[in-house]
Amino acid sequence: MCDNADDGSVSGKRKRIKGPLHEEECTEIGALPSMDALPVDLGLDWVGEEARSLLTSAYTDHCDHCVGAPPLTPDHDKSLKAREATFAGVQAGEGGSNDVYALGSLLVCRSFCFREEWRKCLRAVDLALIRAGPVVWGKFFRPFEALASSKLASVEVEGGSGGGKEDRATGKKAQQKAQQKAQPAFFGGGRAIPVVEDLTPEAFKAEHLTKAPVVMRVKDVNLTQDILRKRGAERLVPVETCNVADKKRSYLTDSWDREVMSLEQYYEDYVEKDSCEGRSGYLAQWPLLEQISFPVPDVEEFCIQSGVDDAAPEGCEKEERSLKSVWVGSNTISPLHHDPYENWIVQCWGRKYFRLYDFKDSDCVYPMEGKRCNTSSVEDPLEPDLKKHGLMEGVEYWEFVLEEGDALYIPRHWWHYVRGVGGGGSVSFWWGARMAAMKKGGGEWMSIY
Q1: Which of 101, 251, 275, 304 is the most buried (most CB within 10 A)?
Q2: What residue ranges of the chain are covered by domains with CATH 2.60.120.650?
Q3: How many CB atoms lie within 10 A of CB 256?
Q4: CA distance 424 to 348
């Protein structure tokens, strides 16, 4: 993952940028954030004096050449060597090594922008964010990602939904529309989640927030499958894979693994064909919108703080701005589980089946113990083994098949089982105070800070 074989090298001679980079673009990538503002600690023992010196020197070199119109180019070799100095820590799994690697990558990305090596810049961005996390580091890489993406936007990208694959994409859409005419065989028998037309934030807060699930129509989904594939074809993402023979198709299987690949490769291997060499794949719970400049579904105004969130004590994790995750796959499965935040999930294309259980009925879904206490031990809620999980018989559940443009509100700690109906893509929005689930002495379940 830390391979820099494609980076190349140049002499350390400084020169002013000429050609396609305009002055305003140089200004956009001109200034680096203060070292103190970066979430990295170079004082860690494992970093070592040599690596610390290389990173500090390269960072200083970039800062010394941030001025001018246009600014001077930084030393590319120095940036590459600084990042290379972090590899040993990453490979050894040292604490904080991913953030130190991200610092080196930040310098490499900036250097690639000045060299107008846009694809190499984006590769470096992706590898850094996959390692260190888009939520923490995304804002620091965004100027380089945005500039490189804009430079490549006018270039027709082979693959995706364009070029020679148009006929296949058209046929795929026709097939999906045909599938949407029928509900999945396992649908029915549960309580229907209400659909509220023209739901307002005020009505949502008064009538639904923290109380029960609801579905609304999103005014503007914005993110489409075509946009994802055309704009993100070459971008690298982490894909969860497991053996097709494992019926759970989730992180609960022994065959579960994570692989880094391009979005286009993921589509070709796991979405269009559903499986590759006996394995299924799922781009699951990945903050892709923090990694890549994609449009966002229009639901942020419905991510409203509740009284419980307002009362969260100082020091409690609390998301004022929603945490957004992208979910893309074909016939995927998410096991029965609950989340520590309030949640909207928007279906951007395709379909997904949701089955929900009230938090108060947690005993009936048999939570696991230990680190996976937010996951049910019921392997298949659609056909539970009642000899092992007798309380599942007769327990009330809500269900809904989410279509393109639908948004489902899942209250914090409500259990939900999710199953893709063919191919589809969605975006989840977590917000509010992060809370844990606990069972009181009297047997009642409660949320705690």
Answers
A1: 101
A2: 191-448
A3: 16
A4: 8
Does the domain spanning 191-448 belong to CATH 3.30.420.100? Answer: no
Q: Which residues of 357-369 are buried (b: 16+ CB within 10 A; e: fewer)?
A: bbbebbebbbbee
Tokens 């894979």 -> residue? 241
Closest CA to 433 of 345, 276, 306, 293: 306
DSSP helix/strand/coil, 105: helix
* CA atoms of 192 and 215, how far apart (whole Å): 10
SS3 readout for 75-91: CHHHHHHHHHCCHHHHH
| Residue 74 · residue 114 · CB < 8 Å | yes
* Continuous H helices in 116-261: 118-132, 134-153, 166-179, 201-207, 225-232
Q: Which two tokens stand for residue 356?
A: 């929900």
Do residues 268 and 239 make contact, with C-beta atoms less than 8 angstroms apart?
A: no
According to DSSP, residue 340 is labeled: S
Spell out the residues 6+ positions from residue 192 whose beta carbon is closer than 8 angstroms to its own: 398, 399, 400
What is the distance between the alpha carbons of residues 45 and 41, in angstroms, rounded to a whole number? 10
CA distance 286 to 260: 12
Count CB-CB contacts under 10 A for residue 53: 14
- pLDDT one-digit tens code per residue, 193-251: 999 999 999 999 999 999 999 999 999 999 999 999 988 999 999 999 999 887 666 78
Asked if pLDDT for residue 2 goes beyond 90, the answer is no
| C-alpha to C-alpha distance for 298 and 214, rounded to whole angstroms | 17
CA 186-187-193 angle, 5° bins? 150
DSSP state, 274? S
Q: How many residues does the chain have?
A: 449
pLDDT digits (tens, 9 = 90+) for 3-60: 433 443 333 333 443 445 665 666 667 678 999 999 999 999 999 999 999 999 999 9
Measure CA 330 to chain center: 17
Helix (H) or strand (E) holding 100: helix 97-115
pLDDT tens track for 280-325? 999 999 999 999 989 999 999 999 999 999 999 988 998 878 999 9
Relative orientation angle of helices 48-64 and 97-115, to the nearest 10 degrees: 40
Gap between the Cα atoms of 294 and 129, Å rounded:
15
DSSP 271: I
